[in-house]
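Lab channel / #folding
Pinned by the channel admin:
"Please post every new chain as: sequence first, then the structure tokens as a reply. Keep commentary short and put observations after the output so the thread stays searchable."

First post following the new format, from NK:
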Amino acid sequence: MEQIRLTQFSHGGGCGCKIAPGLLSEILSCAPQGFVPPELIVGLETSDDAAVYRLNDEQALIATTDFFTPIVDDPRDFGRIAATNALSDIYAMGGRPILALALVGMPIAKLPPEVIGAVLAGGAEVCRDAGIPIAGGHSIDLLEPIYGLVAIGLVHPRRVKRNADGCVGDALVLGKPLGVGILSAALKKELLDARGYARMVELTTQLNRVGATIAELPGVHAMTDVTGFGLAGHLLEVCRGSNTSARIALRDVPVIDEAAGFARDGVLRAPRERRRAPLRHGEATLVHASRRLAGGH
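Reply from TO:
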């Protein structure tokens, strides 16, 4: 029996399928903004990682959703990567997840139940590691497979870390090296070896739970999750929201060794993704922190 490759059903991989920021802004500008209660601490204003709603003086609810098409062929790994990516938005706001709902769209006529079940099992495995249940969800029959989560978390209202609170003089700290998007492109072209694949899965299934701890440090002003729009795209959102500018020394940007090699060989991304930054989907948390905290680097 021929092995099923999940990526063959996808026109693009992972967060690379996101609508480009400029087009998304144009689309949203055509939709009138709905009711905005005073309890909504974070909404649509700065394209932040999640919405935050104040419940009381001690608790605020974080709500986010994230799903995408396969970035890898292994169904369990796909489920793990997608679930980790969704939960990262909670950590990027400085909170901790408390539960999740699954979002599942699969080509039922083309994928057997055991493959779809393995995707769900991978997502459940990550949620167990995060200490939360998958308490429900929604499923539909689609031409392309998608999987992700609605993630709900809690944070103290004073510890919410928006992407718009960066300060002049802050240092930028990345939680993980970049380049997973390049490895994904290499995988789709059957150029990625076992070592590179293992490195990619290791990084994309590592929960960014340190974000909740970092948010409690007084020197940390802003955080965001670096995924589909790359370091440049997400940093631009931070700078625009914070009314600041940023200076990056490329030699100081951590990059996955295998990804750097593929980039030198011209393995970057599919033609439809050329408006994206080449180092995308790094699954890193970008921290705007005082230089004293970051050691001046």
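NK: The first helix runs from residue 21 to 29.
TO: also worth noting, Residues 259 and 265 are 10 Å apart (CA to CA).
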